[in-house]
Amino acid sequence: MTHPIHSLALRRGELALYKGQPVEIEAVFGFDIVQVRDLVTGGRLEVEISHLSRRDTEVDSTTDQTGFKPTDEWREIAEFRLEVIKPLLNSRNRTRADVEARASEFNYRPNALYKWIAAYEGDGTLSSLGRKQRSDARKTTFDARTEDLISSAFKELKPKDKQFTEIYQTIKDKIAAANAQEKANNKDSCCDGSVPGNFKPMEIPSAGTVRNRFLAIPRRQKYSRLHGARSAEHMFDPILGSFPGANCPLDVVQIDHTLLDIMLVDEKHRKPIKRPWLTLTFDVCSRMVTGIYSSIDPPGAMSTGLCIAHSILPKEEWLSGFGSDAQWPVWGKMTALHGDNAFRMKMLKVACKDHKIDLIWRPVKNPKFGGHIERWCGTLAQAVHSLPGTTFSNPKERGTYDSEAKAIFPPTEFNQWLIERIAAYHAEEHSQLGMSPLDRYRLGIFDGTDKHPAVGLQPRIQDPRDRTRLQLDFMPFEERTVQRYGIEIDKIFYYHDVLRRWINAPDPDSPKLKRLFRFRRFYAHLNSVWFYDPDLDDYFEIPTRDSTFPDMSIWDLKQIRCEARATKLPNSQIDEEYLKQRYLRMREQEEASAKKTKAARSKSERHRMWDASPKPQVAPAVQDESDFDSDTIEPYVRVRGFSEMPETATKLRELHEMASEALYWDNSARIRRVWDLKTQWIPYTRAKFLIRKAKELLNRPKAPRLPCLLVYADPNSGKTALLRRYGELHPIDPNLGGDAIRAPVIGIEIRSPDEGALYDSILKAIQAPFKIQDRVQKKRNQILTILENIGTRQLLLDELNTAISGPLLKQRNFLGALKNLLNELQMTVFATGTPDARIALALDQQLESRFEMEELRRWTYGEEFRELLESFECRLPLREPSELQAPIYAKRIHELTEGYIGKSLSFSCALP
């Protein structure tokens, strides 16, 4: 299950969470650093944006306590309100006169517009502007005859009927005529010519009622009836001459597919397979590439959706997955998306409408309007032509060059090259801009120009659940009714109990028809679909009814159906069992012939990539800033001219080896190395003592109810760094000669007091296969079996204090599940957290009695604190000493940082 999307607004005064603590953003220093103020302690600190999270609200933004359902009529009202306030949104120079003028234009009171602006800027979703339904909403008080006459009058609107009074008069005339006709018919049926006593004429509705029904008609449909189809096109279709409004970053983003001129090889045999497709998005203003999706599969709705989601989401975690430390600070929703006719797909129209992204279609026979992105694709093609295995742009240019024989790049390595090429392009000067795309992007975000003020950082989607929701919103979907057996898509049946309440549900607009629901599919994995529940405004994963059904892709399915048609197999004989058996035979044939033919290798490589591609799921939380690998150092280029530095050479003995190496770099590189210090482990006496104590627990023989250790401290005290260092000292042993890995120590982060989330975190930590929708008991049994086999003896728990969040019953269940795991596996625990962690353990006295509590106190001013500052300085690449340990400096640093090691380290890095 996911939840509605929320994003973190990155501007001064916004509230957020940092390490679970409420903070207020005070200043934005760039794409990655902000200054925040702790709302509990009042302290100020600089943190990375990626480590902030949005503060959750008490009430869900889309479902109220009355059971509100977002209907099409509701969406029409919300969209109209958004159109009214759109020119006033996110405007720093908005005045009351502007609001009053806009309110007067649409005949509203200014207070109503202020209310809508506050709601939309606070939530950022369409649901904030919708009107909640009353309990009697959509229930008519008229009989069926009156309703039919009103509906027929609306359907018979003519271009001349442009005044509402004329429409209302037409309805009154129709009802009066119908009453007169029925009265005459009743007279004829009576022998004496009188009107029967049970005759009841139709009521004439009030003008207000008819007006409300009229306003509920979709605007384009109504406008087309009253003013003609051509006028509706001019009114509602976008007009594209150039790019009006593409003056700021993400105002207009172009999207396109391109087939790259290079032959790839498969990962297993390193033999040629085929050329890759690249889908990319491109910011017209800054010329930044905002998102990409590369695949050997043909492009379509799936690649389009994944590329747009990649464009909107932050990219740090994705880049680290490819082992890249490139800078790609682009995130946020674009104002308008511009594409050619290949992107006229229903999925894209629905998703962009839901996320308030304007769609601009390239005019027919006007390719010049896509020139920005096409020129960059040409630039990329030139770079690709220099790689081994290039096919060049045509056979004449290729000549006798054997592309397949020279090919060396598998898809993963080619993606790594592509990332580095994009990063290099972002840093190169652009001939038309007169600066690099990254500098132009930075200018539009932070500084602005004479004509256009800075727009600031876009709201950033931080929560993994929000990222999942966004990806699902941009996935292709099918519409189906829910039957007693579930649903059927392409001969595959799906069912889950979440569908039970929607079986044979009627359409709310046409009760005689069954209601259609949206089911989104991830084309690489067809063993489940994602059901959108319109009442909850949320997604649920629905598995296949047959749990043994293989995880085939949509391209496998199409090939099987195509082969069945070729053999003239009747459609009635194609069922789930046929698909399953044919798929298994097809995979066996592909594996057997993978070395022989390029087509078979291509299919085999596709399956490898599909198996490796993750389904939409809740991703792991962002790590604490002290959790990064301290051995990851960016390979800077040394600068000539610093080889002879006799006065500095005499000081090399006093510096840490990493700092002494950096002395010969240029200033910008040395400054960046200063900030790298925050990721290094700096040992001190108290930390060594605690690590030694945890190791003693690890070395204890297995026994019931082993003792455990909790280290608690205030934020910025180095708790997570301590736990991280301990984990590095006890890595997982691959045990290549044995049957399984050896993992005596496993570390996880506690995100909520949820038993299922605890099991999910453990399974992810050991990289065990599992499904999110699996029962809790199944996951627990899996953990007991695996941890016993790999020899796990100690569990590392970070942020144990989060166990006090949520209902009391969930907290008790969580602690009970943890205690049972420790009992059955006879493990010990090394945990860290804020002082609230002690409160969490107090809920279970048996568990609390096992823990020894150790506080990581703030540093007091004295000789040890000065030695700590000296250890900081010896790791800084300084050509002259700063003397941080001198009493005059050390005492002031202690006063400013309050003795917190994290603050002291950040301050020391900023001071030189």
Automatic annotation (TrEMBL):
<dbReference type="InterPro" id="IPR001584">
    <property type="entry name" value="Integrase_cat-core"/>
</dbReference>
<feature type="region of interest" description="Disordered">
    <location>
        <begin position="590"/>
        <end position="626"/>
    </location>
</feature>
<feature type="domain" description="Integrase catalytic">
    <location>
        <begin position="240"/>
        <end position="445"/>
    </location>
</feature>
<protein>
    <submittedName>
        <fullName>TniB family NTP-binding protein</fullName>
    </submittedName>
</protein>
<dbReference type="InterPro" id="IPR008868">
    <property type="entry name" value="TniB"/>
</dbReference>
<dbReference type="InterPro" id="IPR012337">
    <property type="entry name" value="RNaseH-like_sf"/>
</dbReference>
<dbReference type="InterPro" id="IPR015378">
    <property type="entry name" value="Transposase-like_Mu_C"/>
</dbReference>
<dbReference type="InterPro" id="IPR027417">
    <property type="entry name" value="P-loop_NTPase"/>
</dbReference>
<dbReference type="GO" id="GO:0015074">
    <property type="term" value="P:DNA integration"/>
</dbReference>
<dbReference type="GO" id="GO:0003676">
    <property type="term" value="F:nucleic acid binding"/>
</dbReference>
<dbReference type="Pfam" id="PF09299">
    <property type="entry name" value="Mu-transpos_C"/>
</dbReference>
<feature type="compositionally biased region" description="Basic residues">
    <location>
        <begin position="595"/>
        <end position="606"/>
    </location>
</feature>
<dbReference type="InterPro" id="IPR036397">
    <property type="entry name" value="RNaseH_sf"/>
</dbReference>
<dbReference type="Pfam" id="PF05621">
    <property type="entry name" value="TniB"/>
</dbReference>
